[in-house]
Amino acid sequence: MSAPPLPGVYTFVFEILEKRRISVGSLLYIDFDEGLYVYVGSARGPGGLRKRIARHASKQKRVRWHIDYLTVDPHVVPRAAVYAVTEDDLEEEIARALMESRIMVPTVKGFGCSDKKSFTHLFKCIESLEKCIDELRHVFTRIGLKPCVLFFS
């Protein structure tokens, strides 16, 4: 199963298996604790959600965005994506809602949003994968989206 080749917004959930120091381009070296993380993004180009989410799940790619520096690391494992088909630019709204969540902790200032006004698009989830997915579904629904979930094996 994969996401549709349509425009939309998504959250990409991944796990860092052990504490890592990772070079993240212009953000330099960042220390990441092990655990679940959530990245907020949008997909508007050719291939839409399908292509963007598949890119994040792949280890074989040219490193272009902040998230790529993490997802190519061998100790980073994709777990799930929560997405919604939409033409609207709701990436910032999702990031703001996650800033208010009890189980999502904002991480690196400017991560994934150097062209936006939000603090970060990367959050650490301090609960289980199941609770993390439930929270993301709730956020999407609260802003009028119909969330879909894609799990990675």
Structure explained in plain terms:
- By secondary structure, this protein is an alpha+beta fold.
- The protein has one domain (8-151).
- It contains four helices and eight strands; from the N terminus they run ββββααβαββαβ.
- The protein has helices at residues 48-57, 66-71, 91-99, 129-142, and strands spanning 8-16, 20-23, 29-32, 35-43, 76-85, 104-106, 122-125, 148-151.
- The strands form two sheets. A six-stranded antiparallel β-sheet has the order 6-7-4-1-5-8.
- A hairpin with a 5-residue loop joins strand 2 (20-23) and strand 3 (29-32).
- The radius of gyration is 14 Å and the shape is globular.
- It starts with 7 loop residues before the first strand and ends with a strand.
- The relative contact order is 0.23.
- The mean pLDDT is 94.
